[in-house]
């Protein structure tokens, strides 16, 4: 009896869910793609000693990347937790400092820089217009002096 495509997909997805237990989806995706790549290259270059060595090195690199990503995520989670735990210890002055100095002043600085750039661009365009007008005036005066 032949298995239907939908049954096959359901079975494969269930197997994937079993393998993924406790692993973040983004990490699992990278792991599965790495495995599929390794399987493809393995089948294509079966028996070639150089290719086998390259595959082993690629696997080591994929594993090292996955380990580094996991460590990064764990470190980020630990940092987020430490910051969260620090919030109740902040004084009113600390909160004002964070809001005013860090957020408000950064926004103000950004707005000032944007305004300076806008005014500078406007002045540059005006100078260009004036120079273009002066050039035309000089050309008209030359023509009049040649004809007059």
Automatic annotation (TrEMBL):
Coiled coil: none annotated. SUPFAM superfamilies: S-adenosyl-L-methionine-dependent methyltransferases (SSF53335). GO terms for biological process: DNA restriction-modification system. InterPro entries: D12N6_MeTrfase_N, SAM-dependent_MTases_sf, T1MK-like_N_sf. Residues 10-126 form the N6 adenine-specific DNA methyltransferase N-terminal domain. Gene3D superfamilies: 1.20.1260.30. Keywords: Restriction system. Belongs to the N(4)/N(6)-methyltransferase family. This is N6 adenine-specific DNA methyltransferase N-terminal domain-containing protein. It comes from Leucothrix pacifica.
């Amino acid at each position: 009896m032949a298995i239907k495509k939908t049954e096959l997909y359901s079975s494969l997805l269930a197997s994937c869910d079993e393998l993924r237990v406790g692993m973040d989806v983004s990490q699992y995706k990278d792991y599965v793609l790495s495995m599929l790549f390794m399987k493809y290259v393995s089948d294509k270059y079966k028996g070639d000693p150089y290719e086998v060595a390259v595959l082993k090195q690629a696997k080591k690199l994929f594993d090292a990347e996955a380990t580094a990503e996991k460590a990064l995520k764990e470190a980020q989670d630990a940092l987020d937790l430490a910051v969260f735990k620090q919030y109740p210890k902040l004084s009113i002055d600390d909160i004002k400092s964070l809001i005013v100095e860090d957020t408000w002043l950064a926004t103000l600085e950004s707005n000032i820089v944007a305004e300076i750039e806008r005014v500078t661009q406007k002045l540059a365009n005006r100078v260009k217009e004036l120079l273009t007008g002066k050039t035309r005036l000089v050309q008209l005066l030359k023509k009049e002096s040649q004809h007059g």
